[in-house]
């Protein structure tokens, strides 16, 4: 699993010189194709993490070079980091995305599924990273716990996604959220 195949957000024309004839998304897509074709020859399944924002925003995709649909053509699994706390207020018309975990996960994954399935080509399985942490600087404050964990899992399943991962930088996971109520 590749943990990010991207350009850093600060990699603009003042910090890096790129061929003007090729975009960041083309570079990352070509790298993804190359690495996947070579690893798959050895029987290796390939997955990569991407920013969740690249599902919603072509601008964000062009900045970091992650074209969700294009790279999903080569990967076995694509793992968008779709943490509700990382969306701007008003995304999908939701004032406080971090307080609406189910709806944010459901809508993001449905959009992602639509993007990669619109042309009928075989694409990667979406296996999202979900949030098992609290961002303490968000208002209104919401401590993420078992309910928010279950809400995200339900959102994934309701969007037709059968696999998921959770992220907590400290490795402190909410086991109660993985148990049925």
UniProtKB/TrEMBL annotation:
Keywords: Hydrolase. Residues 1-173 form the DUF4015 domain. Coiled coil: none annotated. SUPFAM superfamilies: (Trans)glycosidases (SSF51445). Pfam families: DUF4015 (PF13200). The keyword Phosphoprotein does not apply. GO terms for molecular function: hydrolase activity. InterPro entries: DUF4015 (IPR025275), GH (IPR017853). This is Glycoside hydrolase. It comes from Candidatus Cellulosilyticum pullistercoris.
């Amino acid at each position: 699993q590749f943990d990010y195949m991207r350009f850093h957000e600060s990699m603009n024309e003042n910090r890096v010189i790129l061929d003007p004839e090729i975009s960041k998304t083309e570079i990352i897509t070509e790298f993804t194709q190359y690495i996947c074709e070579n690893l798959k020859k050895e029987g290796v399944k390939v997955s990569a993490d991407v920013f969740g924002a690249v599902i919603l925003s072509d601008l964000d995709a062009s900045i970091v070079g992650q074209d969700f649909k294009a790279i999903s053509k080569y990967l076995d699994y694509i793992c968008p980091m779709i943490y509700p706390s990382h969306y701007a207020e008003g995304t999908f018309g939701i004032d406080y995305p971090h307080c609406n975990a189910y709806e944010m996960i459901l809508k993001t994954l449905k959009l992602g599924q639509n993007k990669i399935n619109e042309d009928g080509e075989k694409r990667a399985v979406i296996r999202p990273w979900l949030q098992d942490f609290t961002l303490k600087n968000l208002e209104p404050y919401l401590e993420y716990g078992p309910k928010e964990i279950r809400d995200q899992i339900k959102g994934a399943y309701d969007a037709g996604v059968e696999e998921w991962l959770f992220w907590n930088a400290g490795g402190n996971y909410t086991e109660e959220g993985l148990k049925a109520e």
